[in-house]
Amino acid sequence: MTLHEKNVLQFLKDHCVKHGRFTLASGAVSNMYVDARRMTLSSRICDDLGYAVHDRIHPCKPDALGGPACGAIPLAALTVMVASANGKLLEGFWVLDRPKTHGLRHTIEGNLESGWRVVLVDDVVTTGKSLVHAVREVRAAGAEVVLVLALL
What we know:
It is built from 5 helices and 7 strands. The chain is α/β, with parallel strands linked by helices.
């Protein structure tokens, strides 16, 4: 585990894990809730988080990374910024539950091209339904999913 990953894990434990009775997005009830957006949207840990994701996906040599809105949005943005700061090309995108009813009416927003190698990311996974949907949409767009990565 890298220092960046250790810092992310400690921040997650200290600031994001809540105990009580919670209804999850899946409808399931849990005695624990992970509010990952307290981490993905915090200046206190954003550098470590961006580098942790970047370092983990780098061996796959992806052209882009993204995933389900809205969990993947800050992860993609942070990781794209780290890639740019290190002189590497990496594009970002996110996948909507359904096509927008206005504008270009896309299901995938951002930068994704047919033939690209793609990493899918998400903050928290319970049932995996949104990631499975993202895999289907990315494949339908002609890209190859080479890795799926979640914080939890």
